[in-house]
Design goal:
mainly alpha, disordered N terminus, transmembrane, TM_pro_TauE-like, membrane, transport
Length: about 270
């Protein structure tokens, strides 16, 4: 068990076994939440920041590495069992990757504190829309077709991808609600596509972080395996229980997001 405490290649020394177990549990929980509705970063990133000796940039980079394992697993699981339409998902993912990379660059210039109040207001609007329209997202009833549908989908991918690069928490949740509100997908269908797009946004951010040398490989691999297991379980559960289950978890995660980011805004004042 000695390798667990030293984590060769992680760049950190004398990590306690209890810390590694905490990271594993956080990865499992985050992978499950991400697979169902997104927002796993609410659990995973704060836990990473508690590790002694880790810098915020190292935590962000390693968090993205862990997340990409989980989103890849859940995306494959959704594809095999729910068969999302790739004609919409793949263009969205490509545009989202560009947006995420651009957002990561902007994040080095604009403080997150400037963006967080706007995000909190948007999340409150999302929560009210979902709570007051219980039938929204129950069934897929597309509002547009052809080029209009694809254009709106790509604009969603670009804007949410940019947000993921700049800030990050709740990216999957924003993707899902945007596809439900603006395109007419059910929560389950939107969640299946969101995993493919979220995979691209994680990849875009990693493309920015990898050359910087901030990625902690040993820790990232442990986090990634945990994320994969959680993502697989979460995706299968969402598919088996359907859109109503995803909607309930969505409301819970968005509520926690509002409290978490709202606290940051109040604390900054």
């Amino acid at each position: 068990m000695e390798w667990l405490t030293t984590l060769p290649g992680s760049g950190l020394e004398d990590i306690q076994l209890s810390t590694v177990l905490m990271v594993i549990i956080a990865g499992l929980a985050a992978g499950w939440i991400d697979a169902v509705v997104g927002g796993g970063g609410l659990i995973q990133l704060p836990i990473m920041l508690l590790i002694p000796g880790i810098t915020p940039v190292q935590a962000l980079a390693t968090n993205k590495m862990g997340s990409i394992f989980g989103t890849t697993t859940s995306a494959i699981t959704y594809y095999r069992r729910a068969h999302p339409d790739l004609r919409t998902a793949l263009p969205m993912a490509g545009i989202a990757l560009i947006g995420s990379f651009a957002g990561a660059i902007v994040a080095t210039i604009i403080p997150a504190e400037i963006i967080k109040p706007v995000i909190v207001l948007a999340l409150i609007a999302v929560l009210l829309f979902t709570a007051l329209k219980p039938t929204a997202g129950t069934l897929t009833e597309l509002r547009y077709d052809g080029a209009t549908h694809l254009t709106i989908a790509c604009l969603i991918g670009l804007s949410v991808g940019f947000y993921d690069g700049v800030l990050g928490p709740g990216t999957g949740s924003f993707l899902i609600i945007a596809m439900v509100m603006f395109l007419g997908y059910s929560f389950l269908a939107a969640s299946a596509k969101a995993k493919i797009v979220n995979l691209a946004t994680n990849a875009g951010a990693l493309m920015f972080f990898l050359p910087s040398g901030h990625l902690l490989w040993g820790l990232g691999l442990i986090l990634g395996v945990s994320n994969m297991i959680g993502g697989y379980i979460g995706a299968r559960m969402a598919i088996s229980k359907g859109a109503k289950f995803v909607r309930v978890i969505f409301l819970v995660v968005v509520s926690v997001l509002i409290v978490r980011l709202g606290w940051d805004v109040v604390a900054a004042w």
